Amino acid sequence: MSQPDTVARILDAAEALFAERGFAETSLRTITSTAGVNLAAVNYHFGSKKELIQAVFARFLTPFCQELERSLVKLVDRKGTELSPEDLLECLFSTICDGSEEGSYAAQRFMRLLGLAYAQSQGHIRRFIIARYGEHYQRFTGLLKKAAPEIDPVTFYWRLYFMLGATIFTLSSFDSISGILKEDFGQDSTVLGTTQMMVPALAGMFTVK
């Protein structure tokens, strides 16, 4: 088995198990058994369980942040710097899901992991994300703050987390929510279509003082 294949199998197993069971509840031995590798392979490629968790997050966040940066550049080139909250959130959600079924599934899985990171007090993940991706976060939130100049910093902080919470819940629970929609209204839904519906609702938090 090649090294890239080994790394991918470990990451695939870790991501699935963390999302299903949680971080603390998933042992390295369970991951290695699922991936079909030995413990030495995890230690060699990642060093520790914390670094493996961070690598799982990086596998989603690195290409996401790169694509978001490109999308923001195109958005600013097209509309200038006087952007609305809705412009920015449309850009964000289209990047999260990338318009594909595979991208939508990856977004659901990642939001499940992100929700667990907050719920299980995985502080090292927050520090890792800030250190590795803080520049991208600051760029997006800076543009959003400029689009909502009347909102004071503390209120802006809380509304960012309201937005994050709504996004995590909706995407990580999408299968259940869409199942209820189908049962109650006979209507099918997609992750991409749902995020498009979220945009005006979330943008409203940044247009009302």
Automatic annotation (TrEMBL):
Record feature DNA-binding region, as residue ranges: 27-46
Keywords from the named record: DNA-binding
PROSITE patterns in the cross-refs: HTH_TETR_1, HTH_TETR_2
Residue stretches making up the HTH tetR-type domain: 4-64
One Pfam match: TetR_C_30
Molecular-function GO terms, alphabetical: DNA-binding transcription factor activity; transcription cis-regulatory region binding
InterPro entries, per the entry: DNA-bd_HTH_TetR-type_CS (IPR023772), Homeodomain-like_sf (IPR009057), HTH-type_TetR-like_transc_reg (IPR050109), HTH_TetR (IPR001647), PsrA_TetR_C (IPR041586), Tet_transcr_reg_TetR-rel_C_sf (IPR036271)
Annotated SUPFAM superfamilies: Homeodomain-like, Tetracyclin repressor-like, C-terminal domain
Domain of life: Bacteria
Name of this chain's protein: TetR family transcriptional regulator
Origin species: Simiduia agarivorans (strain DSM 21679 / JCM 13881 / BCRC 17597 / SA1)
